[in-house]
Amino acid sequence: MDAINLFLYLFLSVFTFYLVRGMAVAHLRRRKNRLPPGTLGLPFIGETLQLISAYKTENPEPFIDDRVSKYGNIFTTHVFGEPTVFSADPETNRFILQNEGRLFESSYPGSIQNLLGRYSLLLMRGTLHKRMHSLTMSFANSSILKDHLLADIDRLVRLNLDSWTGRVFLMDEAKKITFNLTVKQLMSFDPCEWTENLMKEYMLVIEGFFSIPLPIFSSTYRKAIQARTKVAEALGLVVRDRRKEREGGERKNDMLESLFEGDGAAGVEGGGFSDEEIVDFILALLVAGYETTSTIMTLAVKFLTETPHALSQLKCG
Prior knowledge:
Elements: H1 3-33, H2 48-55, H3 62-71, E1 74-79, E2 82-87, H4 90-98, H5 110-116, H6 126-140, H7 143-162, H8 170-187, H9 193-209, H10 219-247, H11 255-264, H12 275-288, H13 290-306, H14 308-316
Antiparallel strand pairs: 1-2
Helix pairs in contact: 6-11, 7-8, 8-13, 9-10, 10-12
Cofactor: heme
Subcellular location: Membrane
Organism: Solanum tuberosum (Potato)
């Protein structure tokens, strides 16, 4: 048996083993936990490909609608590496949200946790989560943010508009504005080469959220993991530089400064925030409003353009 045939034989043997094992584990897991009706799809991959394909179209609802019609409002599937229960039932969703932290605990698939970082605000629990959440709300309601937020928005929007030449895609431009505004509020950076490079790597991280979470088979997820490392390194350097500036008495009015200020108030809880905690926290805030804010901006322009009367009222107001 030559080397190539030996490799193929070993590969098929291992693949067959994991295929059978995956099907057996999935079957036993469903019986043990009495999951709602549905299908776990292919081993490892599950129905991730179908979900990703639907997400990238203009009408992603059929992924859920087709399964609701077949299995009911609550069904089982397997996406992003983990068995998942989908609920399209309003009463069930309300019950889950009202009992979060008591009967239910929010979480994300392991593949997404790898991209967010273990100290992401979206993944934190307990005392650390309360501290980070409290600082976020304090900064959001502070006079520091209110005093310059609108001015920053106006300046960054005008700066973006001035860069337009020829045809543009509004959603892409809205994402640029959202990213630059968030970076400004978090770390006091105006658009520059550094922010452009950061956004390029950040976009690769975002793409990794909707990919098959197998680095060996998915170049998208592999690139996302690599980009996440680069983003963390870039943010970590900023954090270290800012700590040195603070030692020299320099202060800035941004979220990062609030996190440093939180260090001093955290003595009772065991010390200040580590660089890793701050980096993961900042990355989570970059992710949190990126898609939603840019989508709202795009839809606002769309609907105002389609409704001249509302647009004229807005101009008069």
